[in-house]
């Protein structure tokens, strides 16, 4: 049916490993910081950012920065490296996210439903909208019978509805649980 075979990666991290990785706030903050910065980051920069996040001060007190640096260098980054989540060069003291970080990241992002993240949902809507409007412009059967402006308006309305749903979901998550 499909000319391209669809396969699920067999080398993805097991859920138990991902939950173990995310069970520690420093590992979680390190991955979040690596995702934000992209590329190679020095352990010093990473530890300063995490220490500032933990204390709410910039720069964080020296003792906290040193504690974070030591725990990252000795424990957390080697563990993440062994699991294939980051590439950690101990001699250069640089770290970068690698393929396993994507597996962990899916558990760090809010999922909209049906297993999609909000980002993936918006991307899917954008691609579908582009294809439908283009098909309408080119006069494709069925789709071309409707004015492209109407398709575009419908797509914008869909984006608005999805945005409201995302804002509502975020609002509900931010509300304290009632007893």
From TrEMBL:
InterPro entries: DUF7344 (IPR055768), WH-like_DNA-bd_sf (IPR036388)
Domain DUF7344: residue ranges: 19-96
UniProt keyword Amino-acid biosynthesis present: no
Superkingdom of this protein's organism: Archaea
Protein known as: DUF7344 domain-containing protein
TM segment ranges: 149-171
Keywords associated with the record: Membrane, Transmembrane, Transmembrane helix
């Amino acid at each position: 049916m499909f000319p391209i075979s669809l396969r699920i990666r067999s080398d993805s991290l097991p859920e138990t490993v991902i939950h173990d990785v995310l069970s520690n706030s420093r590992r979680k903050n390190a991955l979040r910081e690596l995702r934000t910065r992209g590329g190679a980051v020095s352990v010093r920069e990473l530890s300063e950012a995490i220490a500032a996040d933990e204390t709410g001060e910039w720069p964080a007190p020296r003792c906290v920065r040193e504690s974070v640096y030591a725990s990252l260098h000795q424990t957390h980054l080697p563990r993440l490296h062994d699991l294939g989540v980051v590439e950690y060069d101990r001699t250069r003291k640089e770290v970068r996210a690698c393929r396993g970080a994507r597996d962990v990241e899916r558990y760090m992002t809010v999922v909209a439903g049906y297993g999609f993240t909000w980002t993936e949902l918006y991307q899917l809507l954008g691609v579908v909208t582009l294809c439908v409007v283009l098909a309408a412009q080119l006069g494709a059967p069925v789709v071309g019978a409707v004015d492209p402006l109407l398709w575009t308006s419908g797509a914008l309305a869909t984006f608005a509805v999805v945005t409201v749903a995302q804002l509502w979901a975020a609002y509900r998550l931010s509300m304290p649980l009632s007893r």
